[in-house]
Amino acid sequence: MPEFESNTGRHDRTKRPAGLGPRFLARLIDSVVVAVILYLVMSIFGLQENLPLLAGLAAAAALVYFIVCETQWGTTIGKRLLGLRVIDPAGTRPSARQSVRRNVFIAVGALPYIGTILDLALRIAIAVTIAKSPTKQGIHDRWADGTQVVHNS
After folding, report:
1. pTM for the complete prediction?
2. What is the DSSP secondary-structure string of 27-73?
3. Which of 98, 112, 117, 151 is the most buried (most CB within 10 A)?
4. Element containing residue 110 per DSSP (H, E)
5. Is 62 inside any structural domain?
6. First-last CA distance in the chain
7. Does 9 map to a domain?
8. Number of domain units in the chain
9. What percent of the chain has pLDDT over 90?
10. Does 100 map to a domain?
11. Whole domain around residue 24: which residue ranges?
């Protein structure tokens, strides 16, 4: 198994970094999970017609979902289904601070008018940095003190 290095300079020979494909698919599954939950909540309260509110709630719900899942279990539903997990440089679940920093880009999508464009630009930047990194860490992982998505051992 190839050796890789996190931003802390520590080497880990037991964890295999997850590439762009599995991470994209996991994010897609997680997005569907969040969308279904949000749709049900919005339907119960009759808020489906309020698009600005929907955008804000969608961003908040996704952010909370990722932070809670990553800090409590080290994985999300999508990542679990694909055998992936998020770790910090020590190999444990990320802290709340790390998870917030890793996922805060989600909130950009809720910004009026320019949110969609900024969200797309950030997702492209993250994808490019994951693809180009030998450790498969995106810019958001590096900003979160070196978190990493790995395959379960």
Report:
1. 0.85
2. HHHHHHHHHHHHHHHHHHHT-TT-HHHHHHHHHHHHHHHHHHHHHHH
3. 98
4. none
5. yes
6. 12
7. no
8. 1
9. 71
10. yes
11. 16-151
Sequence letter at residue 74? G
Q: Which of 102, 97, 96, 104 is nearest to 139 (CA)?
A: 102
- Give the burial class of 97: count Cβ atoms within 10 A of its Cβ; 0-12 exposed, 13-18 middle, 19 or more buried: exposed
For residue 65, give every residue at least 6 positions away whose Cβ sits within 8 Å of its Cβ, in sequence order, or none. Answer: 30, 33, 34, 37, 76
Tens of pLDDT, residues 74-102: 999 999 999 999 999 999 999 999 999 99
Angle between helices 115-132 and 20-45 (to 10 degrees): 150
How far, CA to CA in Å, does 79 sit from each of 11, 41, 45, 52, 149? Answer: 23, 24, 30, 29, 9
The token duo for 18 is: 């997850």
**91 found inside a domain:** yes
CA distance 33 to 27: 10
